[in-house]
Amino acid sequence: MHTKWVYHNSHDLSYRKPFGAVPCNTKITISLEVNSLEPPEYVVLRLWKYNSQEEKVYMYLKQDDGNNRIYQAEITTPPKPSLLWYYFIIHIDKNRFYYGNNEENFGGEGKLYLHEPPSYQVTVYSDDLAVPNWFKESIMYQIFVDRFHNGYEDGMLLNPKEYCYFYNKWEETPYYRQDPKTGKTVCYDFYGGNLCGVIKKLPYLKELGINVIYFNPIFEASTNHKYDTANYKNIDRMFGDNELFKELCDKARELEINIILDGVFSHTGSDSIYFNKEGRYKELGAYQSKDSPYYSWYKFYNWPEKYESWWGIDTLPNVNEMDPSYQNYIIFDKDSVIKYWMRAGIKGWRLDVVDELPGIFVKRLRREVKKMDPQAIVIGEVWEDASNKVSYGEIRDYLLGDELDSVMNYPLRDIIVDFILQKKDPHDINRALMSLYENYPLEHFYSTMNLLGTHDIPRILTVLGEAPPEHSLTKEELKCFKLPDYKKTQALKRLKLVTIFQMTFPGVPCIYYGDEVEMEGYGDPHCRATYPWGRENKELLEWYKNIVALRNNYDVFKTGEWIPLHTRGDFFGYIRIIENGKDVFGQDKNNNTAVVLFNRHTDEEINLSLDVSKWCKGKLVDILAGREEVSVIDGLLSVTLKPLEGKVLLQ
What we know:
Elements: E1 6-7, E2 16-17, E3 22-23, E4 27-35, E5 42-49, E6 54-58, E7 60-65, E8 68-76, E9 82-92, E10 95-100, E11 111-113, E12 120-125, H1 133-136, E13 140-143, E14 165-166, E15 177-178, E16 185-186, E17 189-190, H2 195-200, H3 202-208, E18 212-215, E19 219-221, E20 229-235, H4 242-254, E21 258-263, E22 300-302, E23 306-307, H5 324-332, H6 337-344, E24 348-351, H7 359-372, E25 377-380, E26 390-391, E27 394-395, E28 406-407, H8 410-420, H9 426-439, H10 442-445, E29 449-451, H11 460-464, H12 475-480, H13 485-504, E30 508-512, H14 538-553, H15 556-559, E31 561-564, E32 571-578, E33 592-599, E34 606-611, E35 618-622, E36 628-633, E37 636-641, E38 645-650
Parallel strand pairs: 3-12, 13-18, 13-30, 14-17, 18-21, 21-24, 24-25, 25-28, 29-30
Antiparallel strand pairs: 1-4, 2-4, 4-8, 5-6, 5-9, 7-8, 9-10, 9-12, 10-11, 15-16, 19-20, 22-23, 26-27, 31-32, 32-33, 33-38, 34-37, 35-36, 35-38, 36-37
């Protein structure tokens, strides 16, 4: 019995069964506990299905134990994938009360309200939802090509463009310049990294334990970042050519490394064969003539000067993704963009700003990708909880079975940072993690792209070193900033903690190039500096190799069940377990149990005595501390965590 007179907890099977996201046509039992002297006149489960009217289900009295009563209802999820929401209405003593989700919308334990409350969410997904198993078991590495490695020993620059600026030294700090004609910030600065450089570093990536390379855009474009596509079917000549890219795919495949490309399909560059604003191309662009075969791709307010562009940036004209000729070019033609590069050897796509792509476009793209290769992957750039993402007034269907295999897990990154930097209590950290666990289908929860850094956010080491807020520094200070030694020492300890988390938590870890060797930097462009070949932090790199190997060597960290432990103070931890020879997807795997523990405090150690009798017995091995043995006695695990220490204990 709970002290609260009305109670529901969506994370507790006593109140909602089964847990979390469920397939279509699934029966769900939902219960509400009411403790009162007088029985309620009635209890209603208010149910709402997306795009349909509400339903009110009168709950029946399941259990009556004096003043403690359990009300219950059984519902069946819709036959089509969708989101379902519910809360409770309690009529008692001629008063109406509401019980719904907590104010953070985390799920789990709710709250009593005197007005219509936030609803609980149930994600209802397609029966045939499945993400390829190889991807769930992978580790990704993100490469910004111009900044990774120049494969030519003499530092030769491939096919430099006339308007580009080249840094004199590889180790110079990047900074943006202004176009002398327009005064606008431009990204025409280059270092000379290329695909030949990536090929030469494939053995390095293999030794690190990488299975997947995700490239920032590499198609022909004016800028260093290549998000202003000029030709979807050509590798930018500063990086190499199409044949060299095919060679890269072949050599990567020999090392069991798959390639994923960045698909930028919501806009093109204005300096492109499609728009051709600068007149650099022979093709008749939409800017030049209404007779251009590409004219229907764009929305002109007043042709040719006024047109719709991405976030108002006139060098990035938006495309109409629903235009039939555009869809044919990108998706359906025999030699469409997606088919051309998949035949070249890639294993999938990461869709840039997927929230700006129409759902039907994403569905059609994914369908064609899967026709080409059922084992290929489609990843979406989503910064929020992807299960209930609202874009342009519509809830998106990313995780319902016919759009995305995976999403970039920015929410997890924020949760980890908030924990390590003591911004939130471990109890609230666990609630935030449980919210993702509850809202995401299991296939997606175990295949999210679990990142700590990307090209769009400050370097994780800079964040963990508690660098001053970016807005508080001048451009010159941002360019020159490095963590002081005492801050860097602490940040490196924290980085080891968060990589333990990253490699032992469900999902696909992704390493942003250079994070493994102590790269620093604020946001763009400082997070896009060059990889410091020859100046690496070798000790940190060795740590990364070991922690990556830990994940690669033990199935329990890939597809074992995840069970959070009770938290307190600065402690957080969880169990990963495979038992009875089956992982969470029913695949045959070796039994194993891991206890993962964290102390985020910078100065104080934590003495723990944890009841792990449900999962462990006998001896555990401290895999990160020389395989030291730790005993479980009478079901209790007693262990000391030093300041900023993490432990991984294996049964």
